[in-house]
């Protein structure tokens, strides 16, 4: 049975500008980004969440079992609109991380 996001909650979702994961602002604040928290440091920082995530994204895929899912292996990335702040981009570059990340066409 498909799991659909309630309409009211889905309007409040945000996407990480580095890895594209989609969560609520509350989830970013409580847990940070599950993929790149060490780099993005959003946990507990509303200002950082605002700067490093966007509400402007197109497309999403929910995966229950990524190890067995062919969708998880072949899915296209979410399309995002926005850019991380210049100071965050410089932090990433100093760690050898290229921004924006290379995304499939």
From TrEMBL:
One of its GO terms (cellular component) is DSIF complex. Its main location: nucleus. The keyword Nucleus applies. SUPFAM superfamilies: RNA polymerase subunits (SSF63393). The keyword ATP-binding does not apply. One of its GO terms (molecular function) is zinc ion binding. Belongs to the SPT4 family. This is Transcription elongation factor SPT4. Residues 13-89 form the Spt4/RpoE2 zinc finger domain. GO terms for biological process: regulation of DNA-templated transcription; transcription elongation-coupled chromatin remodeling. Keywords: Centromere, Nucleus, Transcription. It is found in: Chromosome, Centromere; Nucleus. It comes from Lactarius akahatsu. InterPro entries: RPABC4/Spt4, Spt4, Spt4/RpoE2_Znf, Spt4_sf. Transmembrane segments: none annotated.
């Amino acid at each position: 049975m498909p799991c659909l996001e309630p309409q009211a909650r889905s309007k409040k979702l945000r996407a990480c500008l580095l890895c594209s994961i989609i969560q609520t602002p509350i989830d970013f604040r409580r847990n940070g980004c599950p993929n790149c928290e060490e780099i993005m440091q959003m946990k507990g920082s509303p200002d950082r969440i605002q700067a490093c995530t966007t509400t402007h994204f197109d497309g999403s895929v929910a995966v229950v079992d990524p190890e067995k899912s062919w969708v998880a292996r072949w899915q296209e990335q979410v399309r995002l609109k926005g850019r991380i702040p210049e100071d965050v981009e410089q932090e990433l570059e100093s760690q050898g991380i290229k921004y924006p990340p290379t995304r499939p066409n």
